[in-house]
Amino acid sequence: MQIEIVTIGDELLLGFTLDTNGAHLARELAALGVEVVRRVSVGDDPAAIAAAVREALDRCGAVITTGGLGPTSDDRSREAIAAVFGRALHLDEAILERLRERWRVRGWGTELPESNRAQALIPEGATVLENRHGSAPGLWLEDERGRWVAMLPGVPREMRGMLADTLLPRMRDRARSPRAEAPVIRSRTLRTTGIAESALADQLGSLAHRLEAVDLAYLPGWEGVDLRLTARGLPAADAEAALARGESAVRGAVGKWIYGEEGDDLAAVVLAALRSRGLMLAVAESCTGGMLGARIAAIPGASDVFLGGVIAYENAVKMGELGVRAETLATHGSVSEQAACEMAAGVRAKLGAGVGVSITGIAGPDGGTAEKPVGTVCAAVDVRGGGRTFRRVLVGDREEIRKRATQAALDLVRRAIAPDS
Amino acid sequence: MQIEIVTIGDELLLGFTLDTNGAHLARELAALGVEVVRRVSVGDDPAAIAAAVREALDRCGAVITTGGLGPTSDDRSREAIAAVFGRALHLDEAILERLRERWRVRGWGTELPESNRAQALIPEGATVLENRHGSAPGLWLEDERGRWVAMLPGVPREMRGMLADTLLPRMRDRARSPRAEAPVIRSRTLRTTGIAESALADQLGSLAHRLEAVDLAYLPGWEGVDLRLTARGLPAADAEAALARGESAVRGAVGKWIYGEEGDDLAAVVLAALRSRGLMLAVAESCTGGMLGARIAAIPGASDVFLGGVIAYENAVKMGELGVRAETLATHGSVSEQAACEMAAGVRAKLGAGVGVSITGIAGPDGGTAEKPVGTVCAAVDVRGGGRTFRRVLVGDREEIRKRATQAALDLVRRAIAPDS
């Protein structure tokens, strides 16, 4: 089964919104074994919407759209896609009643705004996909040849909820093949950090030709380089076997750089390792300003392991709250392995944690020197009084340097508490 | 001038990478007055790349691609796009020498990996776009009819750098019209927070019909709802005048919800307001775990105003470091306006700040109760001992609730220090 994704909204063409919907859909569909062959974004223009949907239907007969179902005048998907199918719009009383009820419960006011009524207009013959997460209902339109378009709302949370509640189950039923030997797409990702893409490629280059029926892709990002193995066109069992062989070969070659698999966040990997060792964690952050703590707190259940920490943005806070010595700052500077060590030890002692980890650096755009250019980051970990440090010049802009710094600090913790290090 | 953007990479179809490149390009092109009419993403498949580029060239004659220029076997853009133009590839010695030099300087090793040599293969007749930010050079191909494709690398930092260094100046020269009356696209965004999209639409509905030559779009997100005014097809001076009239009308109707304009981050707005009043800021965070501090520290120059704070994830830290009373926690719970007030006052006193701001909440997925469901967030601000608080049930998943909480806390600070509040 092949499909195309069409995301709709002027904001996508003006670049003011990231197409997170397209990415989420692609991920969920890949997991279902459905091959996304193209993604297209067009503006809130009925002619452009209709053209993109018509071309996609002609290419592969199955299209998911997001956006343009809202209550305002720039929401044009219903009419444009109804026209592709030659259907008229009519007012659906049941939807209108649900919209009224929802408005009352939310407590924004007593009367449904007039503009919300447009959301109750649906094409003839459309199946309504219930929206339990917002006001815009989704729609499914299908022609006599079995070609279909599913329209989802553009608000990411609503789109994700509706996809999981109604659309994926419906597609799963369609995609389920009666034959065990039906070809599928399967992929697997191994996540590395601390090694360059081309260095990985060199170590894996000869391997790539030996990975029978498996493609190897390199996906660099601020977290490191992901290695994605993909098997296409094999029956499910053969695809899984090919991936298992491929994974084993890749791990044999570059395993020391691999911290996780598909979807693993290094913060979650580190939290799990701390939990299994009964160690509580505290953080001390300067240039990252809380970003490391926020990454850790993003993991559900972090409170088992994460006590909190100190954001020591100013040097007075580093001294007053973390016990960094004035002499250390005067001799080595606030961006130094020595200061990082004292920050990690200080926060560990202050919060009574087993592990303290710290970051201090120059995120830019200003503040760099010849000796410590922008991107210079020092991190330290203190595990029950024993520690290790990190110093490197990270690349990127202010945001990317800070994100890379959190990754480097987490990797420092991972290596410090690994049984074999 | 119209253009299409084609972003290339299996990871985009598998959903493992957000298409930040497409969004960045769209934003930069819109600023130049170039209309992006469609964005397309295809995989690392030469046939799919060639088809997407050929169709886009047929529609509008100008295409920018990103991705597929790297050193590995899944990088296929050069060959696919060269084939669209009927050109062969040849090895460019100057590029190869630069790659070798770059490798030496970076210090990864002494010899350029064999796989990097592929990056020195370029189509006949191509213009090389210098890459000062990474290894893959960009390429510009043009046919005898003046139709062109610019190929940029897929690594966001490199793509952005090359775009600014070489491609935008080149396009600006082409786009520069000799006639002052040439039509342009101009847009302007007003950012609101704390009001629902449909409520805004009701207040602005009648206005929309009176906004001569200006389209009004509603862009909801976790920061609030952005209002985007766009003027199309007018000469630059007329477009600016129409936008100014539109902005004035919108501000008249919903100005109290507007905290900023195009690209403004509420954190930067708040920092600027604090700076102008000579107030230093400290944060105390529970469920957000440092995310508020990280947002503030993301703003270059934050150190003028931002001292740091305490991440009080565990209740013991709330009591020990912030002076939250055990009685408060026992009576009202850690997620309460009372606890938030004590956290804000505590961190303000501890760090000697003029303003303390706090967040405590239940980000989920677990931990909700009937009285305090998941999403319940309390925030408080303490300005030199005087304060105000916030309590609301925010919608979304764990991440979105936390992000909305930082926005609500920042808005609380904004309102508390505004001269007219």
Explain what this protein looks like in three dimensions.
Two copies of one chain form a homodimer. Chain A is of the alpha/beta class. In chain A, 42% of the residues lie in helices and 26% in strands. Chain A has 14 helices and 17 strands. Chain A has helices at residues 10-13, 20-31, 46-60, 77-84, 93-106, 156-175, 197-210, 236-254, 266-277, 291-297, 315-322, 326-332, 337-351, 398-417, and strands at residues 2-8, 35-42, 62-66, 89-91, 121-123, 127-129, 138-142, 148-152, 183-192, 214-221, 224-235, 258-261, 281-285, 306-312, 355-361, 376-383, 386-393. In chain A, the strands form four sheets. Chain A has a six-stranded mixed β-sheet, with helices on both faces. In chain A, strands 14-13-15-16-17 form a five-stranded mixed β-sheet. In chain A, helix 10 (291-297) links the parallel strand 13 (281-285) and strand 14 (306-312). In chain A, helix 9 (266-277) runs parallel beside helix 14. The longest helix of chain A has 20 residues, at 156-175. Chain A is globular and about 75 Å long. The two termini of chain A are 46 Å apart. The model of chain A has no long low-confidence stretch (mean pLDDT 90). Chains A and B meet through helix 1, helix 2, strand 2, helix 7 and strand 10 of A and helix 1, helix 2, strand 2, helix 7 and strand 10 of B. Strand 14 of chain A pairs antiparallel with strand 14 of chain B, so a sheet runs across the interface.
